[in-house]
Amino acid sequence: MAFPDAFWAVGRYWAQPTTQIFTRLRVYGKDRIPSSGGVVLAINHFSWVDTVSFGAACPRTIYYVAKIEAYEIAPLAALIRAFGATPIRRGESDREAVRAMRRLVHDGNALGLFVEGTRQRAGVPGKAMPGAAMVALQEDVPVIAGAIHGSQTWKLGNFHPVSVAWGEPLRFDRLPRGGRGYREATIEIERRIRGLWEFLVEMHRLRRPHGVPPA
Q1: Which end of the chain, C or N, has fewer beta carbons within 10 A?
Q2: Which architecture does CATH list for 3-205?
Q3: d(CA 68, CA 82)
Q4: Is the pTM of this model over 0.85?
């Protein structure tokens, strides 16, 4: 067992209950996450609480990528390394990071990518970057789109409810491995994330009923 898997296995005993208590987390479509094999989890990003919320909402260890600036803070760097995060230079072409991401899914892991590249201050999903599509196409693995809602207004003290929805697996094996394929796949990933987020907005309006499959 890799160290991040062992760390997550132990962490789930406190991280999941703690996240559940403080975010009142509700998850839709968890059964859509494949139990094994390489997969790219393409997710949106509002708040620092998203990382633990998606982690608690996923039955598998998520190997995130993190902006390289986070590694300049020693305690935070130690924590995110323990969770298996890979550093990436935001806004730059980082070939080593891409190789590391490809290696993770090639080895059968679940790669977590905040596809917008940064938190969305407007409170709605933003434009997706091509990283998730690139890794999925180059390694021929599925993409699971995921959306979070509620974390954009969650703060310590108000504890607004947070929900996560997972989409059906997306395969892009008919697209070329190149610029055009990456663009088309990215457009579809962005569309799926937006649809899942709108589903969650509606679920919150309906007071988050149980057992409703995501759109």
Answers
A1: N
A2: 3-Layer(aba) Sandwich (3.40)
A3: 15
A4: yes
